[in-house]
């Protein structure tokens, strides 16, 4: 199964696509990091793959 | 080599303790379980650690671990979100791991002798992965490995009806980045989770070499209250006790008793080790604290008899009753009903509490 994540460019915290998709826009969960992470920050390929296969990323 | 520490999960088997915090922060001998894992990784020379966070208890775990500097390590957080399986959690760590080999450690596991042997065994050959195993009496309840010559794993099977051995996977793995290719190839299991055993089996089927190391000494998964008590007993058994706190004249203190600097054992009380008593805690007159008890911070115990128990902290115990084999959550109060009418036990009990009266 393809696992899609986004790495915060400022602190290196990694966030899974399911978390990004749930929130769409979120403050980076890294300790003390003020960056904003978005589902749209994923590459177009990752986004479309995730959305086309959304069910497998839900328990 | 890097470390990936799993700190997700709901902790449902530890309710109600985990209603207010993650299971990885439940204390064993007055130290959160996850700290033992960090120390094991550090002892194996691993200081770059990715901590996988689920949906529950993130803030508490990040608040405790911070950037890792207080524990002598460097922590990167990896938010898995939904619990999609151990292989999914490992897969989320790919960008953190990069081209390094790495150890995966379940954050609610404890090992008496750490992971140095497992890491050294893996590094002693050309392996695609290494797994830690331990002999168990009930192999049908575990993931089991079939092992051939020189500890080479030949097959993995989950909860087998006909076990090929009694060697159970205990949740410590060493991987090369090739595991990420295996994870990409597998599909979720019948329970909807991406299973790490499937990924390792994929490596095996692909001709990969999987090392195994049978772990000596005890191993505990601290997922249930009885497991926490057992782990507490095992850790206290080897307690390096320092009596830094205050022991009043007239107090009777026997055996190995670890007493934090700001803790007090007052006159007229008896403490019989092995026992750990944390900061700002007072054992008052008339109290007996018996073997295998850990009393957390900011707690007062008066007149009670308590043994083989874990008191998480911020607790008041003034009952004259005997408390044994108990796990008492943060902020609990167990007071005396003596002299109150009508006679009886007065309980304010949260969801999922368990009492034997």
TrEMBL record, chain A:
It comes from the Archaea. This is Putative paraquat-inducible protein A.
Automatic annotation (TrEMBL), chain B:
Residues 2-236 form the Nucleotidyl transferase domain. It comes from the Archaea. GO terms for molecular function: nucleotidyltransferase activity. It holds the Pfam family NTP_transferase. PANTHER family: GLUCOSE-1-PHOSPHATE THYMIDYLTRANSFERASE, THYMIDYLYLTRANSFERASE. InterPro entries: G1P_thy_trans_l, NTP_transferase_dom, Nucleotide-diphossugar_trans, Trimer_LpxA-like_sf. This is Bifunctional protein GlmU. Keywords: Nucleotidyltransferase, Transferase.
